Amino acid sequence: MRMFKIWVIGMAVCLFVSGCGRQSTAAFERKEGKTLYLIALNEEGPYWKPLIQSAQDQARERGCTLIVKAGLPGDSSRPQKLIEMVQEAIDQKADGIAMAALEPEMFDIKAAEAMAAGVKVVTYDTDIRTYSNRLAYIGTNNYEAGMELGRRGAEDLKARGITGGRLTAVTYSGSAQNMTERYKGLKDGFSQSMDQDAAQFTWCTWIINDLSVSRAKEQLETQILSYPDLKAVFTLGTESVITGTMEAIKFQNLQGTLYHYGFDYSPTLAAGVDEGLITGIVDQNCQVIGRTLVDKLADAVEGRDLEKEYLIDVTWVEAKDIKAYGEKAER
């Protein structure tokens, strides 16, 4: 009897172990259909969150599994961590990768490795250096978007009778490719629209806040106090830039006097409309970008040819319309 009990217990253990073994194997089986990776610089905020959500919605429409990997703003190791996320996609034999190239040179090499491994690669937000290492760039032409911001700002200032003075710009990085392209476009667009009066304006050294609200506020206040003829400030994106700029304008009591033109919609900007802390914005159509990323990547996996670029235009929004614009289901 005792031997029989031992035999029963032993059989139960064997069945349990073998059952667990099958469950474990099933848990790691690759799902049927296309598996795509979306590598994002951030997963929060008014640009990234809608972009990711629209990409996820489109992935469901296309029958794809979308794996989202995102970095953290302000993390000094973010470039390396993003590269490791791309490597994970390669190791997992993903069908496609959509990557925002925070460091174009680093991602250039990784994109080439992914393509060599048979993984389809598209870029967005910021492109890589070597276009042959990806199938397509999808999103904003940052130079043209900067030009649109500069043109619109110049037209608005002319409408207010302002044809001379100083200008400044605030950014989170002086080296990120999207920021340098926006800044160059901003100055070119402003000069183009101002025409002969462009010579009457002087650009201050642009402010680089390194994602610090207090730093942005402090630097802009320094320029405000140093240059009484400062007429306009252009912010090139990111919450810390926007918040620091608005705090400086408010603290110096320049609401409605120092004109602020921004890049990308944010609830922070909408909240500043009534106080005269924002004059107008150009906004990237992030939801269209997210959908297009998945669509084109899925097309490539299915064997369709892609164009080298799919550029999504920005939208100009005056201060009086910003609140309603932000409340729309899709921007």
UniProtKB/TrEMBL annotation:
Residues 1-26 form the signal peptide. It comes from the Bacteria. CDD domains: PBP1_ABC_sugar_binding-like. It is found in: Cell envelope. Residues 42-304 form the Periplasmic binding protein domain. Keywords: Signal. It holds the Pfam family Peripla_BP_4. The keyword Membrane does not apply. Belongs to the bacterial solute-binding protein 2 family. This is Ribose transport system substrate-binding protein.
